[in-house]
Amino acid sequence: MVKSRRLNIRVTEAQAKQLERQARLHGLTKTAIIEAAIQRYFDDEATEPPEALILRRLDRMGRSQANAERDMAEVVEMLKHYVLYWLTVTEPIPEGSRDAAHALGRRRMDHFSSQVAKKVNAKSSLDPDD
Fold first, then answer.
1. What is the DSSP code (8-state) at residue 90?
2. Residues 105, 107, 108, 109, CA torsion sign
3. Fewest Cβ atoms nearer than 10 Å: which of 27, 61, 82, 104?
C-alpha cells in the first residue's frame, strides 16, 4: 500500500456538496477524486501550453515559407539567365518567315501551356490538402 499523508484543506460549502455528490454518483471516495484532480493539475502543468505549440508550428511554417521564397527566387534567376542566353544565341528570323514562325510559336506555346495545365491539375487532384 502506498504511504499517504493527511492534509487538511478548506473548500467552499458548494464545492464540498458537489464533491460528496460526485463521490456517491461514481462510487468513489472523496480522497480518490481529490487525488485525481491534483494529479491532473500536475500533469497539465507539465504539458506544454497550447500557445507554445502554436508558436512552434508557426515558426516551422515561417521557415518553410522562407525556403520556398528562396527556391522560387533561384528558379526565377535561372529562368532569367536561360532566356537571356537563348535570346543572345538565337538568330533573328528573316522578314519573309516571321508570320509562319509566329504561328508555329503560338501553336508550340499553346501545346506547352496545355501540358503544364495537365500536370498542375493532375498534381492538385492528388493533393490531400484540397
1. S
2. positive
3. 27
CA dihedral angle for residue 19, residue 20, residue 21, residue 25, rounded to 10 degrees: 100
Show the CA angle centred on residue 113, arms to residues 105 and 64, nearest 5°.
Answer: 130
- The model's pTM is 0.45
CA–CA dist 104, 118 (Å, integer): 21
Q: pLDDT, tens digit, for every residue of 56-84?
A: 899 999 999 999 999 999 999 999 999 99
Predicted confidence at residue 67, as pLDDT, reads 96
- Alpha-carbon distances, residue 13 vs 26, 59, 78, 120, 125 (angstroms): 20, 47, 75, 66, 61
